[in-house]
Amino acid sequence: MRRKIIAGNWKMNMTPTEAKALATTLAPLVKNPEVDVVYCVPFIDIFPVKEVIAGTAVHLGAENVYFEEKGAFTGETSPAMLKDAGVEYVIIGHSERREYFHETDEIINKKLLKLLEHQFKPILCCGESLAQREAGVTMDFIRMQLKLAFQGVSASDAAKVTIAYEPIWAIGTGKTATVAQAEEVCRGIRETVKELYGEAIAEEIRIQYGGSMNEKNCKELLAEPDIDGGLIGGASLKPEFGHIVNYKAL
Ligand SMILES: O=C(CO)COP(=O)(O)O
Known about the structure:
Elements: E1 4-9, H1 16-26, E2 35-41, H2 46-53, E3 59-62, H3 79-84, E4 89-92, H4 95-100, H5 105-117, E5 121-126, H6 130-134, H7 138-149, H8 155-158, E6 162-165, H9 179-197, H10 199-204, E7 206-210, H11 218-222, E8 229-232, H12 240-245
Parallel strand pairs: 1-2, 1-8, 2-3, 3-4, 4-5, 5-6, 6-7, 7-8
The chain binds 1,3-dihydroxyacetonephosphate (13P).
């Protein structure tokens, strides 16, 4: 049985002072021994958040990484830096990074390989645009994104990856995919993993849904057989996140 994983993606929100306050507010609310909880925070918030979650079951995550070890890459953050700071999970392939920072499938593949080399737990995002959904190519597109991202990744490493299905049209828009739409794609993702790595890895790998997930829709989404968690943007910045973590009680 796969353990659920509920991760907050704070995006470019929270100054270090605000981050510390938010983590402190969430501390008594975010408790569920049945779920892996992760805060993926801006680099500059890693230390203040780490201080607050020390001794709790919350895992520390980052929102990005660079694929080189070190050197003249002004403004970038290396895997070793994140490792030393205590980061365990790292989001890569988010549609915002693909769109605004021109990250290609090739870059995302390099980042995935590098994260696995350094024993991180990557959260690999994929998802279609509205135009792609309307053109009926959703699954073809996602299958391609996954095949390119996983190039050169061994089966034993593949199982360490969490895949986040985030339809671009549902991110920050208040439009959630219907439960049926989300489950259909998450099942398709599992089938793709099966094609690439076989049944055992496909059954082991965790697949999250992300895109306007909130306390109202999470219970239904998380009850689906192929949805193993959520990657939560807006609602991860509020006490509501605690309710999502305890979704069974909603
Ligand atoms: O992009 C997301 C998480 O990575 C989803 O963001 P929202 O929950 O704000 O729609």
